[in-house]
What does this fold into?
Amino acid sequence: AEWDWFLRFIEAHIKAAERMADAKKNQAASLVLVDEAAAKTAAVLATTYQVRAETLREVIVLPKYLRDQGERAAKLVVELEASL
It folds into this structure.
């Protein structure tokens, strides 16, 4: 039950991030000829929201990946932590 709630929570945030990315893309497109600085800011925010949605998708699959990959996944996590 907790996992289902977690997935619903994450999926809602993914949808919200995708909506915001679309809104900022549209805003950037509408501002490109009027206010270049504002258009660039909106484009950067659109990318930020896209990256957030992708990161949240990775969060969803991470537990399955860790379970399926077992020891190999644990080694990769250790390597990743060491590289930070």
